[in-house]
Protein backbone atom coordinates (compact mmCIF):
# COMPACT_ATOMS: atom_id res chain seq x y z
CA UNK A 1 0.00 0.00 0.00
CA UNK A 2 1.26 3.47 -0.82
CA UNK A 3 2.26 5.64 2.11
CA UNK A 4 1.49 9.35 2.06
CA UNK A 5 2.89 12.02 4.31
CA UNK A 6 2.00 12.06 8.01
CA UNK A 7 -1.38 13.61 8.84
CA UNK A 8 -1.25 17.39 9.05
CA UNK A 9 -4.61 18.90 9.87
CA UNK A 10 -3.40 22.22 11.18
CA UNK A 11 -3.25 20.98 14.78
CA UNK A 12 0.10 20.47 16.47
CA UNK A 13 -0.13 16.92 17.77
CA UNK A 14 1.63 15.89 20.95
CA UNK A 15 4.79 13.83 20.80
CA UNK A 16 2.99 10.79 22.21
CA UNK A 17 0.28 11.05 19.54
CA UNK A 18 2.79 11.39 16.71
CA UNK A 19 4.89 8.49 17.96
CA UNK A 20 1.81 6.27 18.24
CA UNK A 21 0.73 7.28 14.75
CA UNK A 22 4.16 6.53 13.32
CA UNK A 23 4.12 3.09 14.95
CA UNK A 24 0.55 1.96 14.36
CA UNK A 25 -0.11 3.17 10.80
CA UNK A 26 2.95 1.45 9.21
CA UNK A 27 2.00 -1.77 11.04
CA UNK A 28 -1.52 -1.47 9.63
CA UNK A 29 -0.16 -0.83 6.12
CA UNK A 30 2.03 -3.92 6.40
CA UNK A 31 -0.96 -5.95 7.64
CA UNK A 32 -3.06 -4.82 4.66
CA UNK A 33 -0.19 -5.48 2.22
CA UNK A 34 0.10 -9.05 3.48
CA UNK A 35 -3.55 -9.53 2.54
CA UNK A 36 -3.20 -8.23 -0.98
CA UNK A 37 -4.41 -4.68 -0.45
CA UNK A 38 -1.53 -2.64 -1.83
CA UNK A 39 -3.10 0.67 -2.87
CA UNK A 40 -5.40 3.19 -1.23
CA UNK A 41 -7.73 3.00 -4.23
CA UNK A 42 -8.36 -0.70 -3.54
CA UNK A 43 -9.31 -0.07 0.06
CA UNK A 44 -12.95 -0.30 1.15
CA UNK A 45 -14.97 -0.79 4.33
CA UNK A 46 -14.75 -4.58 4.06
CA UNK A 47 -10.99 -4.40 4.49
CA UNK A 48 -11.35 -2.16 7.55
CA UNK A 49 -13.95 -4.56 8.94
CA UNK A 50 -11.40 -7.36 8.62
CA UNK A 51 -8.81 -5.22 10.40
CA UNK A 52 -11.35 -4.47 13.12
CA UNK A 53 -12.02 -8.20 13.43
CA UNK A 54 -8.28 -8.78 13.74
CA UNK A 55 -8.13 -6.30 16.64
CA UNK A 56 -11.16 -7.96 18.26
CA UNK A 57 -9.46 -11.36 18.07
CA UNK A 58 -6.38 -9.93 19.80
CA UNK A 59 -8.63 -8.60 22.56
CA UNK A 60 -10.28 -12.03 22.92
CA UNK A 61 -6.85 -13.71 23.03
CA UNK A 62 -5.81 -11.54 25.93
CA UNK A 63 -9.05 -12.21 27.78
CA UNK A 64 -8.92 -15.96 27.19
CA UNK A 65 -5.35 -16.87 28.04
CA UNK A 66 -3.27 -13.74 28.51
CA UNK A 67 -1.75 -14.12 25.03
CA UNK A 68 1.36 -11.94 24.68
CA UNK A 69 -0.01 -10.68 21.36
CA UNK A 70 -3.28 -9.74 23.01
CA UNK A 71 -4.41 -6.17 23.64
CA UNK A 72 -7.04 -4.42 25.74
CA UNK A 73 -10.27 -3.00 24.24
CA UNK A 74 -8.94 0.52 24.88
CA UNK A 75 -5.78 -0.25 22.92
CA UNK A 76 -7.81 -1.77 20.08
CA UNK A 77 -9.91 1.37 19.77
CA UNK A 78 -6.79 3.53 19.98
CA UNK A 79 -5.22 1.61 17.07
CA UNK A 80 -8.40 1.85 15.04
CA UNK A 81 -8.75 5.58 15.73
CA UNK A 82 -5.18 6.22 14.58
CA UNK A 83 -5.77 4.35 11.34
CA UNK A 84 -9.04 6.24 10.86
CA UNK A 85 -7.24 9.56 11.44
CA UNK A 86 -4.67 8.63 8.79
CA UNK A 87 -7.42 7.74 6.30
CA UNK A 88 -9.26 10.97 7.14
CA UNK A 89 -6.11 12.83 6.12
CA UNK A 90 -5.99 10.82 2.88
CA UNK A 91 -9.62 11.78 2.24
CA UNK A 92 -8.90 15.47 2.87
CA UNK A 93 -6.14 15.38 0.28
CA UNK A 94 -8.37 13.44 -2.13
CA UNK A 95 -6.25 10.29 -2.18
CA UNK A 96 -9.53 8.50 -1.44
CA UNK A 97 -13.15 9.61 -1.85
CA UNK A 98 -14.37 8.39 1.56
CA UNK A 99 -12.89 7.20 4.82
CA UNK A 100 -13.62 3.44 4.87
CA UNK A 101 -12.86 3.27 8.60
CA UNK A 102 -15.68 5.70 9.37
CA UNK A 103 -18.49 3.24 8.61
CA UNK A 104 -20.80 1.22 10.83
CA UNK A 105 -19.96 -1.87 8.78
CA UNK A 106 -16.32 -1.70 9.81
CA UNK A 107 -16.86 -0.54 13.39
CA UNK A 108 -19.37 -3.31 14.08
CA UNK A 109 -16.46 -5.76 14.07
CA UNK A 110 -14.66 -3.90 16.84
CA UNK A 111 -14.91 -5.05 20.48
CA UNK A 112 -17.23 -3.09 22.74
CA UNK A 113 -15.79 0.24 23.75
CA UNK A 114 -14.46 0.24 27.31
CA UNK A 115 -16.57 2.27 29.70
CA UNK A 116 -15.28 4.11 32.72
CA UNK A 117 -17.41 4.60 35.79
CA UNK A 118 -16.46 8.02 37.13
CA UNK A 119 -17.07 6.74 40.64
CA UNK A 120 -14.31 4.15 40.18
CA UNK A 121 -11.66 6.71 39.25
CA UNK A 122 -9.31 8.09 41.86
CA UNK A 123 -10.09 11.48 43.37
CA UNK A 124 -7.80 12.84 46.07
CA UNK A 125 -10.15 13.28 48.99
CA UNK A 126 -9.70 16.15 51.43
CA UNK A 127 -8.38 13.71 54.02
CA UNK A 128 -5.88 12.17 51.60
CA UNK A 129 -4.74 15.59 50.44
CA UNK A 130 -4.22 16.88 53.95
CA UNK A 131 -2.44 13.68 55.01
CA UNK A 132 0.17 13.92 52.28
CA UNK A 133 0.48 17.71 52.66
CA UNK A 134 1.13 17.33 56.39
CA UNK A 135 3.75 14.69 55.69
CA UNK A 136 5.66 16.66 53.03
CA UNK A 137 5.62 19.73 55.28
CA UNK A 138 7.22 17.82 58.15
CA UNK A 139 9.68 16.03 55.86
CA UNK A 140 10.84 19.28 54.26
CA UNK A 141 11.20 21.08 57.61
CA UNK A 142 13.31 18.25 59.07
CA UNK A 143 15.58 17.98 56.02
CA UNK A 144 16.15 21.73 55.74
CA UNK A 145 16.86 22.05 59.48
CA UNK A 146 19.42 19.25 59.23
CA UNK A 147 21.29 20.66 56.21
CA UNK A 148 19.66 23.12 53.76
CA UNK A 149 22.35 22.40 51.11
CA UNK A 150 21.91 18.64 51.13
CA UNK A 151 20.33 16.54 48.42
CA UNK A 152 17.72 15.47 50.98
CA UNK A 153 16.70 19.08 51.64
CA UNK A 154 16.52 19.92 47.93
CA UNK A 155 14.44 16.85 47.16
CA UNK A 156 12.11 17.29 50.13
CA UNK A 157 11.46 20.98 49.38
CA UNK A 158 10.85 20.26 45.69
CA UNK A 159 8.49 17.39 46.51
CA UNK A 160 6.56 19.57 48.95
CA UNK A 161 6.08 22.25 46.27
CA UNK A 162 5.03 19.60 43.75
CA UNK A 163 2.40 18.10 46.08
CA UNK A 164 0.99 21.54 46.81
CA UNK A 165 0.78 22.51 43.14
CA UNK A 166 -0.82 19.23 42.11
CA UNK A 167 -3.12 19.07 45.13
CA UNK A 168 -4.57 22.57 44.91
CA UNK A 169 -4.28 23.85 41.33
CA UNK A 170 -5.95 21.11 39.27
CA UNK A 171 -3.22 21.06 36.62
CA UNK A 172 -2.37 17.91 34.69
CA UNK A 173 0.94 16.26 35.53
CA UNK A 174 2.12 16.65 31.93
CA UNK A 175 1.41 20.40 32.12
CA UNK A 176 3.96 21.02 34.88
CA UNK A 177 6.42 18.14 34.44
CA UNK A 178 8.47 17.07 31.43
CA UNK A 179 7.10 14.41 29.07
CA UNK A 180 9.90 12.21 27.78
CA UNK A 181 8.16 11.64 24.44
CA UNK A 182 6.95 15.19 23.80
CA UNK A 183 9.56 17.83 23.06
CA UNK A 184 7.06 20.64 23.72
CA UNK A 185 6.48 19.54 27.29
CA UNK A 186 9.69 20.35 29.11
CA UNK A 187 8.23 21.26 32.51
CA UNK A 188 7.12 24.66 33.79
CA UNK A 189 9.79 27.23 34.58
CA UNK A 190 9.84 29.98 37.17
CA UNK A 191 8.75 32.39 34.45
CA UNK A 192 5.47 30.45 34.27
CA UNK A 193 4.51 31.15 37.89
CA UNK A 194 2.84 34.35 39.08
CA UNK A 195 2.47 34.02 42.84
CA UNK A 196 1.04 37.54 43.14
CA UNK A 197 -1.86 36.79 40.83
CA UNK A 198 -1.83 33.09 41.84
CA UNK A 199 -1.72 31.91 38.22
CA UNK A 200 0.21 29.19 36.38
CA UNK A 201 0.94 29.43 32.65
CA UNK A 202 0.90 25.96 31.13
CA UNK A 203 0.75 24.19 27.78
CA UNK A 204 -2.73 22.71 27.99
CA UNK A 205 -4.06 19.48 26.58
CA UNK A 206 -5.35 21.63 23.72
CA UNK A 207 -1.69 22.26 22.78
CA UNK A 208 -2.37 25.94 23.49
CA UNK A 209 -0.89 28.10 26.25
CA UNK A 210 -3.45 28.37 29.05
CA UNK A 211 -3.78 30.10 32.42
CA UNK A 212 -4.51 27.80 35.35
CA UNK A 213 -5.57 28.89 38.85
CA UNK A 214 -2.74 28.27 41.31
CA UNK A 215 -4.73 29.22 44.46
CA UNK A 216 -3.09 30.56 47.61
CA UNK A 217 -2.20 27.23 49.28
CA UNK A 218 0.90 26.43 47.14
CA UNK A 219 2.33 29.97 47.22
CA UNK A 220 4.24 29.61 50.49
CA UNK A 221 5.70 26.21 49.54
CA UNK A 222 6.77 27.55 46.12
CA UNK A 223 8.32 30.69 47.62
CA UNK A 224 10.33 28.69 50.16
CA UNK A 225 11.39 26.26 47.46
CA UNK A 226 12.53 29.09 45.18
CA UNK A 227 14.58 30.60 48.00
CA UNK A 228 16.26 27.27 48.73
CA UNK A 229 16.87 26.37 45.07
CA UNK A 230 18.06 29.88 44.24
CA UNK A 231 17.63 29.53 40.47
CA UNK A 232 19.87 32.03 38.64
CA UNK A 233 17.39 32.43 35.80
CA UNK A 234 13.62 32.22 35.31
CA UNK A 235 14.24 29.60 32.63
CA UNK A 236 15.13 27.02 35.29
CA UNK A 237 12.50 24.30 35.76
CA UNK A 238 10.35 24.67 38.86
CA UNK A 239 10.65 20.94 39.44
CA UNK A 240 14.18 19.87 38.44
CA UNK A 241 15.31 16.27 38.52
CA UNK A 242 17.87 15.35 41.14
CA UNK A 243 18.63 12.02 39.53
CA UNK A 244 22.42 12.13 39.60
CA UNK A 245 22.98 10.45 36.23
CA UNK A 246 20.52 12.84 34.56
CA UNK A 247 22.20 15.87 36.15
CA UNK A 248 25.62 14.70 35.04
CA UNK A 249 24.43 14.01 31.50
CA UNK A 250 22.84 17.47 31.24
CA UNK A 251 25.96 19.17 32.60
CA UNK A 252 28.24 17.27 30.25
CA UNK A 253 26.10 18.02 27.20
CA UNK A 254 25.80 21.74 27.92
CA UNK A 255 29.49 22.15 28.75
CA UNK A 256 30.50 20.29 25.60
CA UNK A 257 28.27 22.60 23.55
CA UNK A 258 30.23 25.53 25.00
CA UNK A 259 33.55 23.99 24.08
CA UNK A 260 34.68 23.47 27.68
CA UNK A 261 37.75 21.24 28.01
CA UNK A 262 37.37 17.57 28.89
CA UNK A 263 39.21 17.83 32.21
CA UNK A 264 36.86 20.54 33.50
CA UNK A 265 33.82 18.60 32.33
CA UNK A 266 35.03 15.46 34.10
CA UNK A 267 35.61 17.46 37.29
CA UNK A 268 32.13 19.00 37.23
CA UNK A 269 30.33 15.76 36.40
CA UNK A 270 32.08 13.90 39.20
CA UNK A 271 30.45 16.11 41.85
CA UNK A 272 27.74 14.92 44.23
CA UNK A 273 24.12 16.03 43.74
CA UNK A 274 24.20 19.10 45.99
CA UNK A 275 27.60 20.27 44.71
CA UNK A 276 26.51 19.63 41.15
CA UNK A 277 23.43 21.79 41.73
CA UNK A 278 25.80 24.56 42.86
CA UNK A 279 27.82 24.06 39.68
CA UNK A 280 24.67 24.45 37.58
CA UNK A 281 24.07 27.83 39.22
CA UNK A 282 27.67 29.02 39.02
CA UNK A 283 28.14 28.01 35.39
CA UNK A 284 24.72 29.20 34.21
CA UNK A 285 23.60 25.69 33.25
CA UNK A 286 20.00 24.48 33.23
CA UNK A 287 19.11 21.26 35.08
CA UNK A 288 16.74 18.75 33.51
CA UNK A 289 13.11 18.83 34.63
CA UNK A 290 11.45 16.04 36.56
CA UNK A 291 9.46 13.86 34.16
CA UNK A 292 5.91 12.59 34.55
CA UNK A 293 7.39 9.15 35.21
CA UNK A 294 9.50 10.68 37.98
CA UNK A 295 6.43 12.47 39.31
CA UNK A 296 4.45 9.22 39.50
CA UNK A 297 7.34 7.50 41.28
CA UNK A 298 7.61 10.42 43.72
CA UNK A 299 3.89 10.35 44.56
CA UNK A 300 3.94 6.59 45.04
CA UNK A 301 6.89 6.86 47.42
CA UNK A 302 5.36 9.76 49.35
CA UNK A 303 1.97 8.03 49.59
CA UNK A 304 3.60 5.00 51.16
CA UNK A 305 5.79 7.00 53.54
CA UNK A 306 2.86 9.19 54.62
CA UNK A 307 0.63 6.10 55.06
CA UNK A 308 -2.11 7.68 52.96
CA UNK A 309 -5.23 5.51 53.05
CA UNK A 310 -5.82 4.49 49.42
CA UNK A 311 -7.70 1.29 50.27
CA UNK A 312 -10.83 2.47 48.47
CA UNK A 313 -8.98 3.64 45.35
CA UNK A 314 -8.20 1.72 42.14
CA UNK A 315 -4.52 2.51 42.79
CA UNK A 316 -2.72 1.92 46.06
CA UNK A 317 -1.09 5.35 45.92
CA UNK A 318 -2.07 8.92 45.05
CA UNK A 319 -1.81 9.53 41.31
CA UNK A 320 -1.08 12.64 39.27
CA UNK A 321 -4.52 12.69 37.67
CA UNK A 322 -6.22 11.79 40.93
CA UNK A 323 -4.98 15.13 42.26
CA UNK A 324 -6.62 16.95 39.36
CA UNK A 325 -9.91 15.12 39.82
CA UNK A 326 -9.81 15.86 43.54
CA UNK A 327 -9.41 19.58 42.90
CA UNK A 328 -12.30 19.51 40.45
CA UNK A 329 -14.44 17.64 42.95
CA UNK A 330 -13.75 20.30 45.59
CA UNK A 331 -14.78 23.04 43.15
CA UNK A 332 -17.85 21.01 42.19
CA UNK A 333 -18.93 20.51 45.79
CA UNK A 334 -18.30 24.06 46.98
CA UNK A 335 -18.89 26.22 43.91
CA UNK A 336 -20.82 24.10 41.40
CA UNK A 337 -20.45 22.56 37.96
CA UNK A 338 -19.54 25.74 36.07
CA UNK A 339 -16.60 26.65 38.32
CA UNK A 340 -15.35 23.05 38.24
CA UNK A 341 -15.36 23.16 34.45
CA UNK A 342 -13.52 26.49 34.41
CA UNK A 343 -10.95 25.41 37.00
CA UNK A 344 -10.16 22.22 35.07
CA UNK A 345 -10.21 24.13 31.75
CA UNK A 346 -12.52 21.66 30.03
CA UNK A 347 -13.55 23.14 26.68
CA UNK A 348 -16.45 20.70 26.41
CA UNK A 349 -18.86 20.69 29.39
CA UNK A 350 -19.58 17.01 28.72
CA UNK A 351 -16.02 16.19 29.80
CA UNK A 352 -16.69 17.65 33.25
CA UNK A 353 -20.10 15.99 33.33
CA UNK A 354 -18.59 12.56 32.64
CA UNK A 355 -15.90 13.08 35.29
CA UNK A 356 -18.48 13.84 37.98
CA UNK A 357 -21.38 11.74 36.68
CA UNK A 358 -21.44 9.75 39.92
CA UNK A 359 -22.00 12.93 41.93
CA UNK A 360 -24.69 14.21 39.57
CA UNK A 361 -26.50 10.87 39.80
CA UNK A 362 -26.30 10.96 43.58
CA UNK A 363 -27.68 14.50 43.68
CA UNK A 364 -30.52 13.54 41.35
CA UNK A 365 -31.27 10.56 43.57
CA UNK A 366 -31.65 12.91 46.54
CA UNK A 367 -33.97 15.14 44.51
CA UNK A 368 -36.00 12.13 43.41
CA UNK A 369 -36.25 10.87 46.97
CA UNK A 370 -37.84 14.16 48.01
CA UNK A 371 -40.18 14.12 45.00
CA UNK A 372 -41.48 10.63 45.65
CA UNK A 373 -41.55 10.84 49.45
CA UNK A 374 -45.06 12.31 49.30
CA UNK A 375 -46.32 9.14 47.60
CA UNK A 376 -45.43 6.88 50.52
From TrEMBL:
<dbReference type="InterPro" id="IPR013762">
    <property type="entry name" value="Integrase-like_cat_sf"/>
</dbReference>
<feature type="region of interest" description="Disordered">
    <location>
        <begin position="347"/>
        <end position="376"/>
    </location>
</feature>
<dbReference type="InterPro" id="IPR011010">
    <property type="entry name" value="DNA_brk_join_enz"/>
</dbReference>
<keyword id="KW-0229">DNA integration</keyword>
<dbReference type="InterPro" id="IPR010998">
    <property type="entry name" value="Integrase_recombinase_N"/>
</dbReference>
<keyword id="KW-0238">DNA-binding</keyword>
<dbReference type="GO" id="GO:0015074">
    <property type="term" value="P:DNA integration"/>
</dbReference>
<dbReference type="InterPro" id="IPR050090">
    <property type="entry name" value="Tyrosine_recombinase_XerCD"/>
</dbReference>
<dbReference type="InterPro" id="IPR002104">
    <property type="entry name" value="Integrase_catalytic"/>
</dbReference>
<dbReference type="GO" id="GO:0006310">
    <property type="term" value="P:DNA recombination"/>
</dbReference>
<protein>
    <recommendedName>
        <fullName>Integrase</fullName>
    </recommendedName>
</protein>
<feature type="region of interest" description="Disordered">
    <location>
        <begin position="104"/>
        <end position="126"/>
    </location>
</feature>
<feature type="domain" description="Core-binding (CB)">
    <location>
        <begin position="1"/>
        <end position="91"/>
    </location>
</feature>
<dbReference type="InterPro" id="IPR044068">
    <property type="entry name" value="CB"/>
</dbReference>
<feature type="compositionally biased region" description="Basic and acidic residues">
    <location>
        <begin position="104"/>
        <end position="115"/>
    </location>
</feature>
<dbReference type="GO" id="GO:0003677">
    <property type="term" value="F:DNA binding"/>
</dbReference>
<feature type="domain" description="Tyr recombinase">
    <location>
        <begin position="129"/>
        <end position="369"/>
    </location>
</feature>
<keyword id="KW-0233">DNA recombination</keyword>
Amino acid sequence: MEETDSPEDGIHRSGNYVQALERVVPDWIEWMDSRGVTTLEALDSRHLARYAGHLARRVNARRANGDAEGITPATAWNYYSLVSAYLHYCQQWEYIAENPADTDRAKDEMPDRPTTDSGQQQFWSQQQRETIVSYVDERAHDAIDADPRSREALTAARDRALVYVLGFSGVRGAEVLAASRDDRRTGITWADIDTDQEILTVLGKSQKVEKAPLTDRPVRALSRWQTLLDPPAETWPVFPSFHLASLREAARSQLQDRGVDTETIDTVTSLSTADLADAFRERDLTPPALTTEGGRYTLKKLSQEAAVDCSADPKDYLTLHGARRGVGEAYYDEAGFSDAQRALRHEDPSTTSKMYAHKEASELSDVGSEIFSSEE
